[in-house]
Amino acid sequence: MKNPLSAGLLFASGNRHKYGEVAELFAPLGIPIIFGPDRALLDVEEDGTTYASNAYIKARAWAETTGLPSLADDSGVEVRALDWRPGIFSARMAEDDPGRVEWMLHQMRGETDRYARYVAAFALCFPGEGFSLITEGVCPGEITGEPRGRGGFGYDPVFRPLGQTGTFGEISREIKGAISHRALAGYAMMDILSHSSVIK
Question: Residue 190 domain-assigned?
């Protein structure tokens, strides 16, 4: 049986920050990870109600358009003191990352309960077959009182993962690549692929 991923795995997103993390994360598969806009330009409406459904919507659209197995993610930060908001709407709280960080700090002003969690879902869809795989990962932590570090993206400068002294904006790429929500969802996806007939 021909390996359906031999021609590569398309990352269904125009976000180069995420693409860099995903390409590094999935490198052990030994297959090309293709940046979506290098093959097509799509603007997919994410109208799902969960991370998994939004990831699936994107992956299915890119797979059918490009004819390549397509991997998409959806992620967000959930804050207990904010009734687990912003969740799937995390990217919509402001126009850019500094604005999102500012929004978060404003919302958390005076809060003593700083518990939060980053959540990510991956969806892998194969063109024409209707076959898909979905995994999720959760990274618990807390919202800091001020931005720290210049690394990462999104809410990373104000999210300190459990067990770490630094935020995602401060810790190394290697550590983030081992413990993040996206990494955990990715490990689960690679585990499924490595124990199935998909890449053998």
Answer: yes
Residue 84's domain comprises 9-194
pLDDT, one tens digit per residue, over 25-40 is 888 888 899 999 999 9
How far CA 8 is from CA of 71, 124, 184, in Å, comes to 11, 12, 21
Which two three-digit tokens encode residue 85? 């908001």
Is there a domain that residue 164 lies in? yes
Looking from the CA of 166 toward its CB, the CA atoms found within 13 Å total: 14
**Per annotation, catalytic residue among 73, 74, 97, 191:** 74
Name the pairing type of β-strands 159-161 and 132-143: antiparallel
Answer yes or no: is 199 within a domain: no
Residue 188: how many CB atoms within 10 A of its CB? 16
Name the pTM for this structure: 0.89
Active site residue 73: no
Asked if residue 1 belongs to a domain, the reply is no
Number of structural domains the chain divides into:
1
Domain CATH for 116: 3.90.950.10
Does the pLDDT value for residue 197 go beyond 60?
no
Closest CA to 13 of 182, 191, 160: 182
